[in-house]
Amino acid sequence: LFFFFFFFSRSSAKLVAPLGCLVSRQKHTLPDLPYDYAALEPHINAEIMQLHHSKHHATYVNNLNVAEEKYKEALAKGDVTAQVSLQPALKFNGGGHINHSIFWTNLSPNGGGEPKGELMEAIKRDFGSFANFKEKLTAVSVGVQGSGWGWLGYNKEQGRLQVAACANQDPLQGTTGLIPLLGIDVWEHAYYLQYKNVRPDYLKAIWNVINWENVSSRYATCKK
C-alpha cells in the first residue's frame, strides 16, 4: 500500500515520506515552468503548453492532494478497504505529477542537438550511436497504444541505459524500477492541437527542444 511521491522544483527532486507515514505534510503544488508558454515554438505551440501545464498538470496535482487526504483519513480509521480503493487514484494522479514535473525540465527553448560528456558516451555504449538511440526511443513512443509515455531510464542494478514505455500516467521508476532521465509525453493533449493525430510529426519536432543539459545532470545524479 505504499507509494513514494516526489516533490519537484525546477532543478531538483526530493523524496518525501511514503503515504503510510503521512501525518503532517505540505500539499503538492504545480511547479512553475522555467520558460514562457510560447518559448518552445514553433515545435510546441503556446496554446498546447498553456493547457498542458495550467490545466492538465494542475488537475493531477489537485486530485493527488484530494486522494492523499482521503488516504490519510483511511489510515487513521484503519480502513484497509478504503486504502486499497484509493490506490488507482494515487497511482494515476501521483504518476501524472511525477511525470510532468520531469517533462517540463526535459524541454528548453535552447535545447536540441545531441548530449555531451558522460551521457553521450553511455548512449554510444548502450545503443551503438546517438542515431540508434533516437530511433529506438522514437519507435517506443510512437508505438504506445492509446495514452502514455516513452522514456530513457537508467538501470542502476545493471549500470546501463534503457528505453521503455509506460501506459497512461504510470511512473517509470514505480512501474519498471528504471530511474527516469528523459520522458516524452505521448498523450494526445501534448500534441493534438498542433499535430492532430500524426504522433510521428510531434515526436520528430520534440527533439529540437530536448534539454540535454538537464538530462545529463539527472544521469550524473542517479549514478552516485
From TrEMBL:
Belongs to the iron/manganese superoxide dismutase family. This is Superoxide dismutase. PANTHER family: SUPEROXIDE DISMUTASE 2, SUPEROXIDE DISMUTASE [MN], MITOCHONDRIAL. SUPFAM superfamilies: Fe,Mn superoxide dismutase (SOD), C-terminal domain (SSF54719), Fe,Mn superoxide dismutase (SOD), N-terminal domain (SSF46609). Destroys radicals which are normally produced within the cells and which are toxic to biological systems. Destroys superoxide anion radicals which are normally produced within the cells and which are toxic to biological systems. The keyword Oxidoreductase applies. Mn(2+) binds at H52, H100, D185, H189. The lineage of its organism: Eukaryota, Metazoa, Chordata, Craniata, Vertebrata.
